[in-house]
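Posting for a labmate who doesn't have an account.
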Amino acid sequence: MTSPKLTRTPSSSVTATAIVSSLLTVQTPGAGFSDLTAEVAKFVREAGAREGMLTLFIRHTSASLTIQENADPAVLDDLATALDRAAPENAGWRHDTEGPDDMPAHIKTMLTATSLQVPVLRGALALGTWQAVYLIEHRARPHRREIVLQFIGATA
């Protein structure tokens, strides 16, 4: 077995001197993915973030957050299909207070994430080339969703 070639940049060290927070409100059009990357990057710039950690937290139980590919829209379609297969409507769920998509939306949220952390390096999100931050709306109807953005670290 051969060992992989490893490289690492020199470590950087900063003192976390700031906590900057904001509440992002998103009006979703209904089920699907909403790309938040540009708005999140704008928050990081406006916060004067240099080095640290950005946390995103969605304040809902029927919508979620993910980091996924941003190049091929078929990826998002396939992910939506996979979530629908994992938690189909009309599967005999007992909780259907708000309709047949109610319980499946809760299951899809449980399978994805309600919070994300993204490192901030040299004033920018440390996302990979093909990565984007998405809100996933799991309900069929449009909803108003709130996401807490919080940067902790060093600012300019």
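Reply:
Got it, the structure tokens are right above this. The chain has a mean pLDDT of 96.
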